[in-house]
Amino acid sequence: MATGGSILKTSEETYEYICTSCAEDDLIKEAKKYCVDCQRYCCQDCLTYHKRIPLLREHAFLDNSSVKPQGQPRSLPAFPTKQCSKHAGKIMDMFCKNHDAVCCYICAAEDHRSCEDMVSVSDNIDQLYSKADTSKTSSDIDRGLDNMNGRQNDTDALLQQLRDSKESAIKAANDFRMEMEQLLKQLEEASIIEIEDEYKKLETLLLEERKKYEDSIVVLKNLKQLLVQASGNIAQQFVCSKLAQQLIKTIKTDKIASSDFRHTEVTFQPSEELKTSIESKTSLGQAPEVLSRIDDLYKVTKIHDLNVKLQDDSEDCFILGSCIIDNTVLFTDLWNDKLKRFDISSSSLIDYCTLPDGPRGVCRVGEEVAVACMGVVQFVSINDKLSLSRSIKISHESYGIAYNDDKLYITDEDKSLYMYDMSGNLLKSVTTDNDGQDLFKGSNHITFNDKKDVLFVGDDDKGLVCFNAQCDYMKTITDPDVRPDGVCVDCYGNVIVANLSLQTIVQCGRDGQKRGIIVDETKYNEYPRSVCINPRLKRMFISYQSCKVQVYHLC
User: Fold this and answer.
1) Which residues of 126-160 are buried (b: 16+ CB within 10 A; e: fewer)?
2) How high is the pLDDT of residue 513?
3) 362 and 418 both lie in a single domain
4) Which of residues 214, 249, 279 is at a domain's end?
5) What confidence tens digit (pLDDT) does each residue in 291-340 have?
6) In this structure, what DSSP letter does residue 493 have?
7) Over the stretch 453-463, which tens digit does the pLDDT of each residue have?
């Protein structure tokens, strides 16, 4: 059987157009209309069904005479079916050559009234349609889909970051409330001590008065007893009477302390200043808006130098590694064997500690940092004060270090990348790709992306070498502007690389591809060795073989 523009000859009656739906059920019925939306021919019964079903009532229909069959049997007519989003039920069957835009006839009348080159799509499809254009459009759509999928992934990462930051902010508010409660408890305890001290002072005075009364009562009772016993002895009675009268007179005239304590009580007068101060607050703090950035390139607004040389440093400084910890920044000083911690906002030294020989890379591991030193990874507590904790031995040189999922990743500034567990057991080492080619000429600093699924290894000669979390090689970014020694990642998916030989700082995307140059070589007098960034405080730190670290203020 054939449909469309063919003639079906399975009965005595023949029709130029037959109903598509009925033909599929081996029924021969003459088609009365062509449904543009369904792209099917319809007999009178099928047209009736269209009118009965609400979702089908707005479909557009053509008379058979206006349909020109195309190509082989069963081919559909070349007529657009896309409905106009502005005018419901109207087909976008007009094309404005002046604006290179398709529209419905109402749009044509409203928006393209003055356009001279307005044509019907169906009537001019042979001149308008180009297979090459369709192929190019399909490729453009694929690229657009890749771009949108990437942006969607970026947005998903930002949403997760936002959710995580909300939990962190709530925890910070809870912690602050507990801190305030502790401070209030301390104030309460101090107030209780003051009350207790005042009470003891007044109690002592009253007890002393009470002792006076008690002694006077005893004396008076004794005198009365003597007075009774002296009955018949007028001389004794006279003496006792005079003694009693003198004592009574003394009691009446003596200004005893108790007269000053008729309404004695210990009271507490709350601090109205403290109460007013708390009542004036609407919350425990602030939740300042921090806008997320995906594709924005960081811009430098100001630069200042941070002097990292300490008074007891015996050598000039060589800051080879750096790491952001909350609102502080840590630097490893290779030549002075120290880990130094500075406050980011004030650029002031907080504390430091002495490390084993040759500290290089540093990364955060929970409430500690791990420092790659000569033959050892040294862990340092970062709570109140920097203090050395445990260490694990390694049998190779070390340079860069990263942490993820209870594993340490270490480079040797040479040909290899190593993966260890937290007990110091070597799990894997990587030197070549699947073809046996060397992956590194010098494996330098390393970092994971914000999703923790890609490890970036800087190599000043090879480029940015990428691995998954299992240390499987993925690819190498060979952009001539990406030749890093130092690498770090912000919380928005950006990878920041410090190019040693190029003397530039470049911003790359989550995939490692270059987005732009943040700092060019004109800003440098020396060669950058490490980079770290705090986007919330808008600071970036670049270290060198120098006693000064450059601090870049960003926007």
Assistant:
1) eeeeeeeeeeeeeeeeeeeeeeeebeeebeebbee
2) 92
3) yes
4) 279
5) 555 558 999 999 999 999 999 999 999 999 999 998 899 999 999 999 99
6) S
7) 999 999 999 99
